[in-house]
Amino acid sequence: MNPTPIIDLHTHSNCSDGSLTPAALVERARGAGVDVLALTDHDTVAGLDEAQHAAVAAGLKLVPGVEVSASWRAQAIHVLGLWIDPGSPALRERLAAQAERRSVRMRRMCAALGKVGLPGDELLAAVLAQPGVPTRSHLAQALLSGGHIDRLDDAFRKYLGRGKAAHFNAEWPTLAEVVGWIRECGGVACLAHPGRYALSAGARRQMLADFVAAGGAALEVITGGNGAAHVEASARLAMTFGLSGSSGSDFHGPQQIWNPLGRLAKLPDGVIPVWRAYGL
Questions:
Q1: E strands present in the chain
Q2: 168 in any annotated domain
Q3: Considering the entire predicted model, what is its pTM?
Q4: Residue 164 clears pLDDT 80, i.e. is over it
Q5: What's the CATH code of the domain at 11?
Q6: 53, 23 in Cβ contact below 8 A?
Q7: What pLDDT, on a 0 to 100 scale, did the predictor assign at position 2?
Q8: For the chain, what is the domain count?
């Protein structure tokens, strides 16, 4: 391991909405010089066994993780569970319920697309044919592959974004519930990409206060694709609320050139790295 290890604690494989298999993700991370990698697929731990085998072969340390969907005041929030026990029966049961919520939402979205003249049943079949839990990214890709949009962004701008015909909120569990799930399976609850939520500054602070009260321990200060202003704001929030800082690319595949694996800024001074407690 390098004297200063390269650590990336937020990535996705094709077990959720990433484009690479877990093994290919690990191989790419190793090629990028990453020493410590967390696989944090959306609401599933299905890729962790494959990733772990690949990590052992590559000489890379894998942190078992998951990115769990939650809700806070009707806002969808993502919480990373890091250093979880992926074999926890309780966690697997809860993630199975999350997968069902995703399936229900996908069926509703495709039905709504059918009502505006698109082939909803065909789009649903295309999504369900893909590996992993169904996500809006899968549906956007199905729309693009079917020639119904010109760019992936058009899927959200025309159909899937907030206020559009096929936008539906899933009935995610509360933020406090999700933090409890992660803690119960031995994990560290880390609030993902805090700057992306459509919240006022006051609401964001209240959300973090509730997160801490529920047992949340870390905040993703460094997130792929975010600039210095975001990092500074997130660092201030972490220090204000006594949270450790995490760093992750939110890598989904090589097609997204703005957030490559492992190319992450250093955590600002004063922010305690979440990995310090694990001797990294």
A1: 7-8, 36-39, 61-72, 75-82, 188-191, 218-223, 244-248
A2: no
A3: 0.92
A4: yes
A5: 3.20.20.140
A6: yes
A7: 52
A8: 2
